[in-house]
Amino acid sequence: MDIAERQSPNFNARSGPVSILVLHYTGMDDGAAAIERLCDPKAGVSSHYVVDEDGSVTRLVAEDKRAWHAGAGAWRGETDVNSASVGIEIVNGGHCYGLPAFAQHQIDAVIALSRAIIDRHDIAPSGVIGHSDLAPERKLDPGERFPWRVLAKAGVGVWPQAVNGDRTVRHGPGRGSGDALTKLQGRLRAIGYAEPGQGDYTARTRAVVAAFQRRFRPSAVDGLIDGETARLIEAVESLTR
Among all residues, which ones are annotated catalytic? Predict the structure, then answer.
């Protein structure tokens, strides 16, 4: 695919190999504004690639370098996600702009770029994540309207089969604790989420569950573990073993 070049000064050396692909939305007015910020040394942020609304791709940081896109967070035990990942910023206003839809040609470009990155670095399906997966208490991107299911069908990431389960809350503030909750928290940990809790339903647990729902059940993101969410957690965990 054709890739334009615009070098950002915001990078440094990696401390290890790449095992994660992180997808973001830009949350800004347009692609030009996002690229300017990602190349501004005062901003101190960057990504390896930007995919604009028209499907055009710009490389800002070489893949063998550590871009600064993930910030504080963790995935599958890795706490320096910047060193272990390639980051793609997808031009989209996000939550502050009413969650606009992603254009099909933009998603096609994201899929093509992601597949090439996955092949180059042998990234497992469970290593393809959103920014909100690694930082559930800080980030919401790429948001509820990002078509994770479409990407998974194209070989980018994971997606569970349909599950049966109602939306009666089992675990939430003031509801449920103990072994059943501990088991579900263990499944979330096995999927890759950091510190989902153990036995008690904490604010961190709710943030992790909300991040999971934002990706795998975007129609209802409340951070509460109902029957449907519990079955989805089990189904996704089975795909990441």
Answer: 89
